[in-house]
Specification:
- The protein is an alpha+beta fold.
- It contains four helices and four strands, in the order βαββαβαα.
- Helix 1 runs antiparallel to helix 2.
């Protein structure tokens, strides 16, 4: 992870398929890894995070949809506890697995 980068979780609940797909593509375009159908994880710097927020604000309907963005420092990330089946194994890449090993 580069200096200034933060681990970021993005979790969303979006009612329309088109908007949900656009947010998923925005996550992927920012280099985030899908860990579940509506959950992404990866690293972003401050500028990328600000751009991502603006992109999501332009896509969603704030009265119906929600996008949660959780920046975490590496120390906090190491404290994450996994209970049960945390990820959809078909969706998780080796990069995400490496974060938890």
């Amino acid at each position: 992870m580069k200096a200034g980068d933060k681990l970021v979780w993005v979790i969303y609940d979006i009612t329309e398929n088109t908007k949900r797909t656009k947010v998923a593509k925005a996550c992927k375009n920012k280099g985030l890894y899908r860990v579940q159908k509506s959950a992404f994880l990866g690293t972003l710097n401050k500028n990328q995070l600000d751009e991502f927020k603006v992109m999501c604000e332009d896509i969603i309907s704030p009265d119906k949809d929600s996008v949660y963005i959780f920046p975490m420092c590496e120390d906090d990330f190491k404290k994450v506890k996994l209970l049960g089946q945390a990820f959809d194994r078909k969706l998780v890449t080796d990069e995400v697995k490496a974060l938890f090993i």
